[in-house]
Amino acid sequence: MERPFPTVAVVGLGTMGAGIAVAIARSGRRVIGIEADAHAAGRALARIQESTAHAVERGRLTAEERGELLALISVGDELAAAAAAQLVIEEVPEQLELKREIFAELDRICPPETVLATGTTALSVTRIAAATARPERVLGVHFFNPVHSMKLVEVVRTVLTGPQAAEDVAEFARSLGKEPVAAGDRAGFIVNGLLFAYLNQAAAMYESKYATREDIDAAMRLGCGLPMGPLALLDLIGVDTARTVLEAMYEQSRDRLHAPAPILGQLVSAGLLGRKSGRGFYTYEAPGSSKVVTEAAKGAAARTAGREVNEIAVCGSGTMATGIVEVFAKAGYRVLLAARSQEKAENAKAQLTKSLERSVAKGRLSAEQRDAALANVTPTGRYEDLASADLVVEAVAEDLTVKRELFATLDKICKPGAVLATTTSSLPVISCATATSRPQDVIGMHFFNPAPAMKLVEVVSTVLTASDVTATVLEICAKVKKHAVECGDRAGFIVNALLFPYLNDAVRMLQEHYATVDDIDTAMKLGCGYPMGPFELLDVVGLDVSLTIEQVLHQEFREPGLAAAPLLEHLVAAGCLGRKTGRGFRDHARR
Length: 591
What we know:
- By secondary structure, the protein is of the alpha/beta class.
- The protein contains 22 helices and 16 strands.
- The strands form 2 sheets. The protein has an 8-stranded mixed β-sheet, with helices on both faces.
- Strand 1 (about 5-10), helix 1 (about 15-25) and strand 2 form a beta-alpha-beta unit.
- Helix 1 (about 15-25) packs across helix 2 (about 40-55).
C-alpha cells in the first residue's frame, strides 16, 4: 500500500509545529514549513536545526540522518507554498478567527483533493472547517508535546469529515510511529476533555483550602501512580492555556465542573502562568525553570506533639486489615489483630505469614525480619483485649452501621486517650466519631490497597478531632515510612474526590458513543502517562465500588455533573462488576 501524503505542509512552526515537521521528515517525507514572515521563518529553521542537533547529541539521530532530515525540510513565509502538499497541518495560536482565515486561504490555494488538518486542542474543528468549501476534507490532528516522544495522535472527525480522509490521516500517523485514536469534534477531544476537568477540580480543591498544593499533588501521584500532581501539571501546561481549554469546554457543555475555577483567572490576571513565567501554583527558580523554590511551611514550628503509641490494634480480617497489620508489625510495633472470632483472626495471621514469605522470596525482606514481624502480631477474637492499645485502626466492611457499632464498642473498651482511627474511603469520619463519647479522639487514616506497597495515607480530621490526635497519626505515618497527606472530612477526601469524577466522565464519553473503550484507555495512557486507562481501572476497582463512591460524591456536593453515568448504573444492575465477575467494560472471562 502506498504511503499517504508524500509531501506535507506545516503552517506555524512554534514548539509543536517544529516538532511535527521533524517527525514527518524522519519518515522520509518532504516537509514545507510556513511561517508568518521571513523573520519568523528564520527563527523556525534555527529552532529545527537546534532541536535536531540536540537529538544527535542524545543519540536519537546520527549526524548523517540529521543531514538527510534537514534536506527534506524547507521553511518559508508564503502560504501559497502549501499548494504542493497533499496534507496541510495548521499549528498557529489558538484563535478561532485566525485559524478560519488561514483555512479559507488554504481552501483557495490548495487542490480540491488536499486534506486540511488543524492542530487545535480546544477550538471547534467544525467551525474551522466551515470556513472552507471542502469540509469533508477537513479534520483535526492533535499531536502531543514533546512530539518526538509522545506516541498519541487524536484524529478528530467532524460530522462532515469523509471516512477516507480520516483513515488516511490515521495511517499517516501510524507511519510516523504514532498511535492514532478516533475522536469526535467537541472541546478537549478525549485527553483534554478528561484531563482538564480533573485539573480544574484540583485547582478548586486547593482554592477552597481543603488541602495544601503539596498534599493534593502527592496524593494523586502516590495514590493513583500518576506521573505528576495536578497543580504541578497545570504549571507545566500553563495556567492561561488551561483556562482557555476550560472556557471552550464550558461553552459547549455548560457543565459547572468545566467552568474554570476562579483561582485560574486570578493567576492569569496576575501574570502567574506557571513555569513559563516563573510562578503559578508553585514558585520556580526562574521563568522556564522546572526547579521549585522551597518555601517554609507555615506554622510548622508550632505543630502539636502527638501522643505516645507503643501498642496498636487493627480490627478486621480482610486484605486491607492484614496489609495494615503488616505495615505496623514490620515497623516494630506490637500489633493486636482483632477479628470477630479467634478462627478469623488466626486465618488473617496465616494470610499475613504468606505475604511476608512472598517478600522474603522476592528479596524484599530477610527471614529474620519476617520472624520479627510475625512475633509482633497477636491474633485475637475478643475486642476486650484491645483495652491496652494506644491506637486502634478499624478496617472492617465499608458499611456505616457496622462501623458505628464497632466504634461504640471500642468506646466502652479502649482506655482514655487511645486514638481511634477509621480506614473508610467514602463514609463520613464524623459519623464514626459521634458513635463514641470521645469524638475528639477519632480520626480517618485512609490506607490504599495493597497497604504494604502503597506509600500514601490520607489523614482525615473532623471538626472535632483534637490536634494532638492528628499529630499522633502523622508521626506514626512517618515512623512506618508512609507519606501522609492532611485533609478535612468530606466525601472522597483528596484522591477519590478527584479520581472518580474523571472515571465518571470517561463512562459518559463512552455512553455518548464519542469514542471506544480501547481508544479512551489508549489516549489517557499515551497522552498523559497514566499507568491504566479509566476503563481498565474501573474494572479493577469494581464497578459496584465505583458506583457507590460516585453516589456519595453526588449526594455530598449536589453537582449535576457528579451524578453517576447511567451506563455505570446499568452495568452494576446487570451484575457486570469488572474483573471480579469476569465482565465489566471488557469481557475478562475470554482473556
